[in-house]
Batch of 2 targets.
Target 1
Amino acid sequence: MDSTEIAIVGGGIIGLSLALELVAAGRQVTVFERGTAASEASVAAAGMLADQDPENPAELKQLSSLSRSLWTDFRQQVERLSGMAVPVHTRRSIQVAHHLPEGFTEATPEEIASVAPGLNTSGKSAFFLEEESICPPELSAALPVAVRAAGISLLEQTSVEAVHDRADGIEIVTSNGSWLAGQVVYTTGAWAAQLPGLPAAPRKGQMIYASLDHPLDCVLRSPDVYIVPRGGGYFVIGATVEDAGFDKQVHDDDIQALLARAAALWPPIGNATIVSTWAGLRPVSPDHLPILGPLDDQGKGRTWAAVAHYRNGILQAPGTARLMREFIEGQQLSVDPTPFRCDRFALSSVQ
Ligand code: FAD
Ligand code: GLY
């Protein structure tokens, strides 16, 4: 039987960024990915690193701030290891909200007109956020290359079918044979109810990639819709939020409704040409917060989970990787993990 020190089950951004963090700390890691790495929620995302979005639950603040502080290093590490570019596409956002949150300053009509002429604030508050966005397809292309360049064994087309706790370690039963691991971390995203049996579910988001010959270098966002410029006259428009199981079909009526919402926020986008559409599955827990930390209650420190990052997993990947590495190495934690504890839910069939 092959063996590994740490097995990571799931090769999305959460699993791959954790693998990089662990290998940098001298650990030996194998990532098991059922399909192609970073080809599920992680490639489908809009790429906003929205740590200050007032729609985010307050409990996310510490993890989001930690992640944001680590994101530039993470991005540069991926670029250096892969030799591929993962550029920042935008550096600020305008948020339109019903109320001006504490600590923010209302943008003046002149400021808005100079950045996003025509933005429809319709009596609501609008304010600037210093917040970056990256392109998830660029990140998803580079990340697996970076992971392999770092010496991590990334096994694609390798589904983990069962995990057994044994006296000498943890047996990972895959579609390509069994492995013996010292520890296992589940980063199975929207599939976490299947393995390891945590209450996470898929929440679908349909998205639009559109072209429009109109300058904009700033994300526009309301609670209903967002418009993310990718440069060169291309824009991502998102997103629906649907409980539709594992269905990833795109529906024309939903896309038209999404485009109409975008045009209500910023009328010029109503003239955009749709280039492509897709849907992804956000992993969501019952309280919308991630599920992070130890899974085994006997203090063996062998089984861990990092799932259910819902709408902010791209932002939160480097912070989650740091926190999980600290957990695994028994170090002081950078973030209070209490809101994210695995045992806050009744566990169904946790292995
Ligand atoms: P995934 O990327 O889904 O990876 C999980 C992986 O586990 C999959 O590759 C799957 O094949 C694998 N797997 C599952 N079970 C097994 C098994 N048994 N064996 C082997 N492999 C297995 N976040 C942001 O921060 N900013 C945004 O702007 C943003 N926009 C979004 C827009 C949309 C439409 C969507 C869908 C999401 C968005 N998100 C955004 C959220 C973000 O994409 C997710 O939170 C994040 O990608 C979750 O990463 P993950 O690695 O947990 O999941
Ligand atoms: N964070 C963007 C989305 O989930 O649609």
Target 2
Amino acid sequence: MRNEILTAFSDYCRDYEKSDRFYNSSRLSKLIYYVQEIILDNESLYIIIRPRIATQEAYRLLEDLTIEPVSAEELLDLRDRLVNRFHPQEGDILEVDFQPFYDYSPVIRDPKNIGKGVAFLNRYLSSKLFQDPRQWQDALFNFLRLHRYNGYQLLINERIQTQQQLSDRIKAALGYLSDRPADQPYESFRFDLQDLGFEPGWGNTASRVRDTLEILDQLIDPPDHQALESYISRIPMIFRIALISPHGWFGQEGVLGRPDTGGQVVYILDQVKSLEKQLQEDIELAGLDVLNIHPKVIVLSRLIPNSDGTLCNQRLEKIHGTLDAWILRVPFREFNPNLTQNWISRFEIWPYLETFAIDAEKELRAEFGGKPDLIVGNYSDGNLVAFLLARRLKVTQCNIAHALEKSKYLFSNLYWQDLEDKYHFSLQFTADLIAMNAANFIISSTYQEIVGTPESIGQYESYKRFTMPELYHVINGIELFSPKFNVVPPGVNENVFFPYTRPEERLLESRDRLEDLLFTLDDPVQVYGTLDDPGKRPIFSMARLDRIKNLTGLAECFGKSKELQERCNLILVAGKLRTEESTDHEEISEIEKLYRIIDEYELQGKVRWLGVRLPKGDSGEIYRIIADHQGIFVQPALFEAFGLTILESMVTGLPTFATRFGGPLEIIQDKVNGFYINPTLLDEMASIILEFVSKCDQNPSYWEEISKQAIDRVYSTYTWKIHTTRLLSLAKIYGFWNYTSQENREDILRYIESLFHLLFKPRAQALLAEHMRR
Ligand code: UDP
Ligand code: LCN
């Protein structure tokens, strides 16, 4: 592995007293820097190089020092041999290859533009379309005629029959509007415009209608791609959105901190509110209130009959703070009630998803009174259901991964057979391949989620080429240069998570209660551990007790550093205190491990472990109380796809120390508005924290400096307003291009369907058979 190669090279240079120049800038050192992996196979050495982001090359170095390139197929065979899962005599293994489907669609050239798909697509397709003005004008005209809401025609009516007529009527309408006061309401001249052939959707005032018509006029002749983007973003095309999130406990109370239920729920609930608000604004601006049009957003999840005190057994739940946004819960069909009546881990739910999609389609249609205009999938299961629904309903599909499990577990594909019992990665990775290729567009929270950094490969990139020994070889799993990828990061709920410096917005009552809970309350049901000196600087962390979240690593880092223990307390908010209360194998083993570490390092008196599920308002206040105590937040995950807790702690004003593996590397700018830590190097982690604490002790304004920078970082870059404006504009633009370019996706979708039926389904059925026996 890369880390070992770098260490071996550095040891070699030291032992053989190589010069600095050799170590840092010789050709060999450069080569070593780009080597991702070395495989030793009998007499040959295989070197896998990543010379650029999203690019991989493999070479074989023979004993006589000749070098040969190695093909993708050979490399995957070699990997199978390495884990003793290679049976050439049994025939070739299935090769999955999506490349041919991307061969005739446009691709981004420069890796730095990956994740800016829509800008690229706009430029590319407009230059193609604009070459033939006649074809372009027809496409635009036909697109404008499409739009309806509940059967009511929007934008243009049958009085405009041709593209030429459209052009003339725009000029006539502009003339008509030229002497109207800018703020004259649309309603007062609606029927005059209707006579000319224009229906609602152009604007809510004379000036807005005029602006929209002017952009369109400009777009007809001569067209340019910027005008196109701003025009399409104004078209009222989206009124109903379905967000799909089947697994976990999807609810508004009592769910966070349970296994499988973390950031995704927070993300979606905030996104819904922001989406509804944005849709409302757009509808109002387009002048569509005259038709009494209102947006509706539905989060589709599974109904869990035994809902452990949550509302997850309720079919419909209104989302707080919205007018018409709901959680719609559809039960899994009752195969084995011992399972289907209860929460089912995200690693086990694959057999239920197809029938769930079939049942959900009817319920969604009933609730929306029609079909949605956009379907957004979340996580591997939600994206698979989004694909099934979008295919049946013929609606634009957007994917959000949140976290792709493949990169969280080292060699999860190579050793999938050993992990299958617990994780069923053969289903999950197949579902991922299906959904990511089927999606019309994908939004990611960071650039590195797609293609990583110069040093590490991205989450989507890990699907490019891999082997599932004895199941299939993926020769090309996803086109990373495809314009379907767009980076659109989330925000934080600014009503809940806001700077500790705003006393007027804080509730005194909850502050006192939570202060007690954090530092002093003696309640063995909720809290483990008492603090000898509650006045010490708190090191705080909050996460689910997943292995990957590595709260136990943080406890161990604290345990190993006497100096840290002298100067700080460790306070953890982590789901549960007792193994008997959990059915999740990772949670159980993390609980056991945490107790072991506290004992082994004798941390009694220095650690408090809160096994509570905080209502959202409380978690906001908890960060602020830690900030009142000039504490810090540490996020020690072995890998974090994005990390909402990092945004939450930063916006509160807490100096934040977060893992350098994953999204935090993009959120934080090291030593400017937070700090990177390497959770595998516990001593180094302790010394980074200690250095900060010492600096603060010498110069108290240092804490405030970092705190202020952290707050600024979130407000400037991570807000829901930025997110939803972008998401809606993407949905419209991809919808437009799908229509006008007449891109034929039927071939790739048929291939995907085959994979679903021939690969995914039999395995899902086998898992179901196993579930029936439980
Ligand atoms: N959270 C919480 N209580 C807990 C654990 C987590 O409220 O006991 C919330 C936390 O505030 C954050 C989310 O759950 O909003 C976790 O999101 P993140 O993206 O950090 O990680 P995930 O759990 O999705 O991997
Ligand atoms: C899942 C994760 O693991 C986190 O890193 C993200 O922040 C969260 O989803 C929301 O996207």
